[in-house]
Amino acid sequence: MWAEVAVAAFKLVVVASMLLTIVPVMTWVERRGAAFIQDRLGPNRVGPWGLLQPVADAVKLLFKEDVTPAHVSKGLYFLAPAVAVFVALSTFVVIPFAKAEGVTLFGVPLEGLIVAPDLQIGVLYLLALSSLSVYGIVLAGWASNNKYSLLGGLRSSAQLISYELAMTLAVLGVLLAAGDLQLSTVAEQQAKMWNAVPQALGFLVFLVAAFAETNRLPFDLAEAENELVAGYHVELSSMKFAAFMMSEYINMTTVSALAVTLYLGGWGLPGVNLPDGWLGLGLSLAIFMAKVGLLLWLFVWVRWSLPRFRYDQLMRLGWKGLIPLALLNLAWVSWGLTQGWW
Amino acid sequence: MEQVVFYLAGTVAVASALLAVSHRNPVVNVLSLIVTFFCVAVNFALLGADFLAGAQVLIYAGAILVLFLFVVMLLGAPTVPPEENPRPIQRVLGGFLAALVAAGGWFFFRSLRAGVTPPPEAGDTAHALGRLLVGPHLFAFELVSVVLLTALIGALVLVKRKH
Amino acid sequence: MIPTAHYLILASVLFAIGAGGVLLRRNGIATLLGIELMLNAANLAFVAFSRQNGNLEGQVVVFFVMAVAAAEVAVGLALLVAIFRRLQSIDVDRLSAMRW
Questions:
Q1: Cβ contacts of A88-92, under 8 Å, gap ≥ 24
Q2: Which one of B17, B79, B132 has the shortest CB-CB distance to C56?
Q3: Is the pLDDT assigned to residue A47 strictly greater than 90?
Q4: In this predicted model, what pLDDT tens digit does every residue of A259-272 receive, in sequence order?
Q5: N or C: which end of chain C has fewer CB within 10 A?
């Protein structure tokens, strides 16, 4: 009993610390990557290649004065960043991120490195919780009592609802092919062929919707520095602002991990039989992290390459572009299933 | 353990539901109703309806109440000013009727010696529910999609400004 | 183990709170929220009975109720927006005219 609790707690700690470590790493990658794409140097003063820049940033954010403007509605103003971080941190638990056949800890089998292996509804849990991320943004926008913030919050709620639809429809194709809601089944089912090949259309829709769901360029209309100043986080300072930055990067990581699990074969490689035991665990973890890292780089790359969409273009793309494409993908998968192709 | 979760979720649900229907600020109303719906989702999970617990959070908390919040903010959190000519009898009557519903449910179900809930079986309800939906309930399932489509069109027609 | 009756009592209390909201509030948004709460309480009762009887039909009904609730909210909120544009208020007591 206690050994199982200890194993679950161990998994939670590992996942939480991995997610929280990715944040500073990604801020560094983002700033250096931007500099690389824009042919400049980027932060290079603190530590070798500026690697300690995120540490300096964190220290700065922690010790900065936490200004609470007089006109905000206090309760919601404090609640909003907490909601954002809570949602971001709690979604990862259903994603299997390494193979753990034959690995035991305190005499308890690890049953695949996934924090909540018994959660039958798997991906539904992830979608349900990530649909709550809109509250963080909307509440921040509302509580700030500032018209730019409110516009950012309103835009983002419409955007998140619209793109959630497209994303869920794309995910539905994968679930149909796997016949199960649990992501470990979805990952195992791709041992021979990644879902990204037969469902390339769904993968495309998923990726575009993922950019919109995480409020990243070219869909960062909620922030939109040059029209809304910074949207919903205009009035936030110090760690409240940092909480939103953290949740953005954690959401990016989770959605990349989800994309890897749903479409890119999870922690496996097609046609490669990983050994059991700790070696297999290490190898599969490395493969998984490499795939997630590639997708995260894609996020950075796109951010510094594409201009921002206009609001009406965004809505048109979501409703008239992605949703029909996702439906087409769903029809295609159903057709394939009736023919017994996969 | 199960009792603790149930009574905690139940108490929070009732408290937040009271706040949801009584507070003057519509933003607070919507937010506390989210808490209520979460507690109902917890109860679904206790009853072994894991798929519905997920769907409850996804549909109610993640979509319906976001829509509410969106409209509340779009209209600028409208509050209704206190009535000029209050009607105390109607208010008391309304409150009495609502209390009657609660009391009736309470006494009726207390007398109902239905016994304890069987423990939830291991295994998922999602598969079984899906088979039921596209099997015996296929017609209702299709009908619901028509209802949703009609609602979508109806909502569009209602808010469209005439030029 | 929790008696099924406790779930049903919780459901009826929640239903009564929702009904109170519909009967007592004049704010249109609070009225709609009360309706949502009543639907949810009914859902809870359905799931409790479904568990008690050991079949899933009750959960199927809950699924349909959720879908219909979503449709109802879309139309209801659209109506509220239209009313607000017309009256600059969402006081449901002011909706006394038969036509505009």
A1: A88/A19, A88/A133, A88/A246, A88/A247, A88/A250, A88/A251, A88/A254, A89/A16, A89/A19, A89/A250, A90/A129, A91/A126, A91/A129, A91/A130, A91/A251, A91/A254, A92/A15, A92/A19, A92/A250, A92/A253, A92/A254, A92/A257
A2: B132
A3: no
A4: 998 888 878 887 77
A5: C
Residue B142 has what pLDDT?
Answer: 92
Across the interface, whether the CB atoms of B58 and A76 are under 8 A apart is answered no
Alpha carbon distance A276, A278 (integer Å):
7
Q: Is residue B101 part of a domain?
A: no
Number of domains chain B contains: 1
Calculate how close chain A gets to B62, using CA atoms only, in Å. 5
Residue B90 lies in a domain: no
Under 8 Å between Cβ of A262 and A186: yes
Closest chain A residue to B77, measured at CA: A142
> Is there a contact between A121 and B63 if contact means CB atoms under 8 Å apart?
no
C95 has a chain B CB within 8 A of its CB? no
DSSP C27: B
CATH number of the domain within which B122 lies: 1.20.120.1200
pLDDT tens digits for range A224-234: 666 666 677 77
Other CB atoms within a 10 A radius of the CB of residue C22 amount to: 19
Distance between CA atoms of residues C15 and C21, nearest Å: 10
Where residue C35 falls among pLDDT bands split at 50, 70, 90? very high
Interval A53-75 mean pLDDT: 81
Kindly tell me if the per-residue pLDDT of B21 is higher than 80. Answer: yes
Tokens 């360029």 map to which residue? A217
Interface predicted TM-score of the whole assembly (ipTM), two decimals: 0.89
Q: Report in angstroms the alpha-carbon separations of C31 from A233, B139, C24, C56, C94.
A: 32, 31, 8, 31, 14
Does B73 map to a domain?
Answer: yes
* Residue B125 maps to a domain: yes
pLDDT average, residue stretch B68-79: 82
Mean of pLDDT over chain A: 83
**Closest Cβ opposite residue C40 in set B37, B118, B125:** B37
Mean predicted confidence (pLDDT) in A286-307: 89
CB-based touch B/C (3+ pairs, under 8 A): yes
Q: Answer whether 0.90 is exceeded by the pTM.
A: no
**Torsion on CA atoms B28, B33, B36, B40, rounded to nearest 10:** -160
Instruction: Print the domain residue range for B9.
Output: 2-84+117-162
Whole-number Cα distances in Å, B118 to B115, B139, B158: 9, 31, 47
3-class DSSP state of A265? coil
Q: What is the DSSP letter of A115?
A: S
